[in-house]
Amino acid sequence: MFRNTLLLLLTAGVCATAAGEVVWLEAEGFESVGGWQRDTQHVDTMGSVYLLATGLGTPVDDAVTRADIPAAGTYRLWVRCRDWLPSHSPGRFRVLVGGKASGELGRAADDAWRWQAAGEFELAEGPVEVRIRDLTGWWGRVDAVVLAAGDFRPADEQDALAAQRVRYGGVSAEVEDAGRFDVVVVGAGPAGLGAAVAAARHGATVALVQDRPVVGGNSSSEIGVPPMGYLGNPPDRVNVTGLVEEFYPPQGRPRSNSHTYADSEHMEAVVRAEPNIALFLNTRATGVRMKEGAADSAREGDSPRGQIDAVLAIDVRTGGRMAFRAPVFIDATGHAWIGYYAGAEYRMGAEARDEFHETLAPAEATPRTQGNTLYNAVIATRDEPVVFECPEWAHSWRRDSDFQPRGDHRRLTEVKRPENFDRPSRGKGRNPGDDPDGTIVRRWWVEYGGMHDTVADAEYIRDELFRINLGLWNYAKNHNPATKERNANRELVWLNYVPGVRESRRLMGPYVMSQVDYDTQKVHHDTIAFTDWGPDVHHPEGFWVAGNDCIHVYKGRRTSIPYRTLYSRNIGNLMMAGRNHSATQLAMGGTRVMRPCMAMGQAAGTAAAIAAANETTPAGVYERHLADLQQALLKDGCYLLDVKNDDPRDLALAAAVSASSAADAMPPEKVTNGWNRIVGDDRNAWLAAGKAPHWIALEFDRPQVVNVAHVTFERQAVPVRIEARQGDGWRPVAAIRRPDQRRYVVPLEPVETRQVRLVLARPAAVCEVRLYHEPDAVVEAVRRRQELALAAAEEERPDLPGIFLDDLDAVETGFWTESTHYRRYLGRGYLHDNNEHKGEASLEFFPGAEGRFEVRLAYVAGNNRANNVPVTVTHAGGQSTVRVDQRPEPPIDGHFVSLGTFLLDENSTIRVDNAGTDGYVIVDGLHLLPAD
To answer: Is the dihedral of CA 729, 732, 737, 742 positive or negative?
Structure first.
């Protein structure tokens, strides 16, 4: 419970001084922030959370609160704000006190955060309403509002200002003890989410601290960067596995691609389902308290101080300060703030070529980095034409020749440093081509900031991205002859204000990954994850570059990430995961994308739980528990290069395996050979080849109690019934009913038996089967997660009469890609054949329904679709093939087209093929409507 000082803050924080009465109001703590947004990104550079007006030229609704005036008198109004572009002062506003307006605020001679005097007000004792009124909608910003009697003036200097915030109630005077946890994770991006959930599932109590109102980091629904990772080469199209398959569903299948966007609501549900995790949203870490020392933070130049005692944080809405204590801390902040505060060794920028023998590095070290991108925007289509008046302060392009020539931004394929990375390479801006969005929506290359400091200059970098994006939209909306007409009725209604950041600080561990790891593909003995993205380092000029825009080599080459890159070399209880792990700039360029980041987080969280349970340090885990860490990761679905399942508790490893039939080179023994996926040319899977029933059985040399099964398919599951031998017969003990994932952990009815078998509805490649006798708490956790997953999956299905089968329920032949690019889809997305490999791809539905049904196919229309998609219905009377034109909008509810009415039986199927088609083939689902 917050202390009395915080209660004072909630009523405006009143305190008397010798100079007179002072009423201090933090803007982010207003009772209603209206249309303003709480911006938490720049606390460490300007001192506070602030309000940002994100109206895109339309003033946002007022932020409103109540101030309690302690005594009648004359009060001077002070407002801390920033004129983010002094040449035009676009972010102007007023403050209204008791209905009386101040003068116009937000104009200044420079772009520094400063206090502006805003007039005097005669106020009576008691409550008075205070409003912040936006005048422009162009990103005005307000940090704090102060009403002061007498000669009081708020401080400008950061330390003095921080002291005043505490003294006058802007933040709580006392630091509340938030509790002691086994592990504290700061940052809830992919790495932090993986770390928190992994630690919790291995028995640790976890505090997950996140400064935003949503989880997901760059891959959140707020920022909107897709969860990236290389898709692999056929037949191996499975990328990073483990927790990513839960957070970014559906994953681990060939149709998963970079357009499977993350869902913050779903990710938060996964976190909140773990009883060991306490999630603290809207909570910004602001420093650390070190053991054997009381300093709040350690800045560069300070000597190392060994061990962190607590992370200090602030509630960005109330100003309440708190401390999170633990024996192990994981820094997943991206910017490496926790390590920075603690005095951990770090690097920023590019290393010199000779330091790590990196042929792609510059001859001399440089502080330049990759830039940031505002990846998310919303463009709405209206019934009538919409005018966009671009402000004069936006960057401007009016004709094609105002940009760099089309095709100027090349990429070299050889492992060679591009020449323009080492000379001035600023151009006129990247040409957006004829995209009607102006490429401001989900385009990585609208990037800026690498020539600046992506930490210290973060606010300026973001503001420049505002100006670039507005200029690009203006070009597409008002000037590009190829897009003006298409954009007549379209309106830019939202531009994100939280950039996706590619690069900043990297904390140094006992091992530093470098380009050499990719060159040699060395598999480290302490491997805990892999990346196959390859070094991907963008030119620091970003959007403005002329010529080669990035170095991106070795894509698809799986490279080992060692555990020694996940803990600090000089802060004994500090771990890190994500783009701040121990790597050179070039090596980090291949590990910084979402899926490898989450894999690193899962490894760090698992290691932290082992450290807490064994009362050791992260280094102690490396020295004494490395095998336990690796086997735990494999059990949890990860893939580690050159490390096989050797878990002594896995009963399946000692079982004799048999099957109903087997395809060539895919015998049943493959499911217990220690590998959970394709490796090289070996599919490491069993596949039935004969007639049904299709089963695989595991027999123990003596009766065993089994209560949990792990089943991993090569690509996509099929329905499975799990049975145990009892006497002379088989008794069902569990089932996989919704086959939309690659890997399942299934709770079984506890049974003592010598034989367990899996009966498959259809042939499907099974890579691994594990069997366990787990403690009751583990079984209950598995059951809880299964129930939540099933409930979430059912919630996504449309509420339709009859039977709906999602595209995820179909059995694939060939390779399909999942997409959410066109928003009018059912469920989590739709499938397409990428307009390739015609005649080689099909999707087959097995409804298992009997009776007369109208069969309807769902698709998402578009001009590039095929107009001759063959759909074959196998029914009680034979086969019927219907060809569907997928270019016009589906005639039934905008989703479905009727294929006809058929008498179906249990053997009926509906198959969509791409043979002979003249465009993209789309499948979004199947609806069977009873025709009786």
So the answer is: negative
DSSP string, 853-865: EEEEEE----TTB
Give the model confidence (pLDDT) of 681-722 as tens digits: 999 999 999 888 999 999 999 999 999 999 999 987 888 999
Taking a C-beta distance cutoff of 8 angstroms, is the pair 713, 766 a contact?
A: yes
Residue of 301 and 476 predicted with greater confidence: 476
Res. 412 pLDDT band, cuts 50 70 90: confident
- Quote the CA–CA distance of 255 and 257 in Å, as a whole number: 6
Q: How large is the angle between the packed helices 626-635 and 594-613, nearest 10 degrees?
A: 130
Give how far Cα 442 sits from Cα of 61, 95, 231, 270, 604, Å.
28, 36, 19, 26, 30
* DSSP code per residue over 169-236: TSS-SSEEEEEE-SEEEE--SHHHHHHHHHHHHTT--EEEE-SSSSS-GGGSTTT---------BTTB
Q: Which two tokens stand for residue 531?
A: 């990346």
Higher pLDDT, 799 or 19: 799
| Alpha-carbon span 494 to 473, nearest angstrom | 12
pLDDT band at 501 (very low <50, low <70, confident <90, very high): very high
Q: Indicate the SS3 state at residue 829.
A: coil
- Which band of pLDDT confidence, cut at 50, 70 and 90, is reported for residue 261? low
Nearest to 528 by CA among 559, 563, 558, 567: 563
Give the span between the Cα atoms of 342 and 323, in whole angstroms: 14
Residue 287's SS3 state is strand
Instruction: Pull the structure tokens for residue 680.
Output: 């090289």
Per-residue b or e along 443-463, where b marks 16 or more CB atoms closer than 10 Å to that residue's CB: bbbbbbbbbbbbbeebbbbbb
Half-sphere exposure of 709 (CA within 13 A, CB side): 27
Beta carbons within 8 Å of 520's beta carbon, 6+ residues apart: none
With CA atoms as reference, report the closest residue to 806 among 815, 822, 814, 818: 818
pLDDT tens per residue, range 621-642: 999 999 999 999 999 999 999 9
Core vs surface per residue 658-697: b (16+ CB within 10 A) or e = bbbbbeeebbbebbbbebbbbbeeebbbbbbeeeeebbbb
Q: Which residues pair with 615 in a beta bridge?
A: none
User: What integer is the mean pLDDT of 66-73?
Assistant: 95
**HSE, side-chain direction, 13 A CA sphere, residue 373:** 25
Could you read off the pLDDT of 117-155 as tens digits, one per residue? Answer: 999 999 999 999 999 999 999 999 999 999 999 899 999
Checking if the pLDDT of 301 tops 70, the result is no
- Full-model pTM: 0.86
HEC profile for 640-704?
CCCCCCCCCCCHHHHCEEEECCCECCECHHHHHCCCCCCECCECCCECCCCCCCEEEEEEEEEEE
Q: Is pLDDT above 50 for 1?
A: no
Please name the residues in contact with 431: beta carbons below 8 A apart, sequence gap of 6 or more. 400, 403, 404, 405, 406, 408
